[in-house]
Amino acid sequence: MTLMLMVLCSIASGLSFGHTPTGVMATLCFFRFWLGFGIGGDYPLSATIMSEYANKKTRGAFIAAVFAMQGFGILAGGIVTLIISSAFRAGFPAPSYQSNPSASTVPQADFVWRIILMLGALPALLTYYWRMKMPETARYTALVAKNAKQAAADMSKVLQTEIVDEQEKLDEMVTSSGNSFGLFSREFARRHGLHLLGTASTWFLLDIAFYSQNLFQKDIFTSINWIPKAKTMSALEEVFRISRAQTLIALCGTVPGYWFTVALIDVVGRFAIQLLGFFMMTVFMLGLAVPYHHWTTPGNHIGFVVMYAFTFFFANFGPNSTTFIVPAEIFPARLRSTCHGISAAAGKAGAIIGAFGFLYAAQDKHKPETGYKPGIGVRNSLFVLAGVNMLGFILTFLVPESKGKSLEEMSGEAEDAEEGTGAGAGRAVRPSETQMV
């Protein structure tokens, strides 16, 4: 359902209708809201499904690989934009904005953003058949739906081997008093309250920095003279140049960062990678901010771009990956997706703050853009983002290390079963140590 909602809303976003700019934006916002609803469901689903199907030795790499596909999506989005904007730019040449404002945006440019948004639905649509064929995870079926027979049948199908259900042991485990607390209970707050605070706050802080970097690359690239001022280009030329710069950053920094995480997360652990990522993002932000006037001097923009790419590398070989992975590992099965969803929602709240905050804060003190009030400037905004990253570094200490541990060990479900129902039941609820994985 979440996948189909994403597909339909991506297509509908490109078809946003209205006779006025306000009408188009209103319908676009409506469809993007429901697209976000679908994505908000798919984030915890994809992470939880992967965590519950993987074994504890390679679980981090498997979840990281799911998230790393986002890097290829970013790269593909840039390439698609380059191709479409190039085709329209060649087919419909236009003067720069400063030469002729009304003619600089040709009517056909309206098709460019619509085509790009609608093509985003294609990869998701191609996976729909396989998503329909996927069974629920065995942990959900056994521990939440309380159907050991169906869980065993589903895992037998996935693993292509015979698995025998143990309904009696399952019944003992799911009725254990220590295994029945709710999300808003004192027991959850005692066991996992700080964990949820840690996963939600670090994701929140990460997205303030990460999305402000992503959404306003064009402003930063313009400020260091890597791409020309907007008024010196036509609309299609501006789209082409911005997408080219963003694609280069994705190729050199974003994508490698994701796959470094895949390769190393089960070696060095989630905790170390997240600490390293936040720390290095802080260092590179300061490296951009302190000598900012040097970077804006003509001829020095290559150094700035390299430093900027490293901030993306360590975001992805760091908290942008680990904040997605850890919430899918440390909470009880019946609350795992919910807690992951809460953490992801906190991240998107940070994204909103980062987007609007950087937009207004980065305005020049003396010459803000038309319609905006003076801000603190790009340099001071980078100092603020460095502080945000350092706070994320500190709050990472609230999040436990899950490398090499089963999901039941991390959530405390295994200990509950052993205390309440004996060693036999304890063994029965350690799926990562049985054929359930």
TrEMBL record:
UniProt key word Transport: yes
GO molecular function: symporter activity
Classification via InterPro entries: MFS_dom, MFS_sugar_transport-like, MFS_trans_sf
Compositional bias ranges of the Acidic residues kind: 410-419
Residues annotated as domain Major facilitator superfamily (MFS) profile: 1-404
Pfam families per UniProt: Sugar_tr
Residue runs in coiled coils: none
Any single biological process term in GO: phosphate ion transport
Segments crossing the lipid bilayer: 24-41, 62-91, 111-130, 275-295, 301-318, 339-362, 382-400
Protein name as catalogued: H(+)/Pi cotransporter
Organism of provenance: Urochloa decumbens
